[in-house]
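Pasting as-is:
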Amino acid sequence: MEPNALKRLKRVAGKQTTTLTHYGRKTGKPHEVTIWFVLDDDKLYIGTANVNRQWVRNVQKTPKIRLSIGGETFDGNARFLTDRAEHERAMAAIRRKYWIFRPLIALGRFLTAIGLMRDNTGSFEVTLAA
């Protein structure tokens, strides 16, 4: 990650949400969604509880994104984490940051483990443009 971008990102990493600009799969038109994010050392992750959401499908097709966090704007590319270990690392970082939601997240993981719910979680690693 480019040092200046990382420095700016570290200043706003404590914010709760980011506005993600993504581009339509068919139209290419920009769309925005407000989501959680986490900076874990020098890795930036965004996650979702439902990989079937439109924004997730759009970013998978067109990884070019823009993040707006606390008055800062970052352009970058998002890589969907298909490796289970990478995805778990991202989700663990998200659980640490959003600790107040741990009971709800734990319930979802439990219901998934016993087969009452499907694991639809997904995550992206974002590489910021220089």
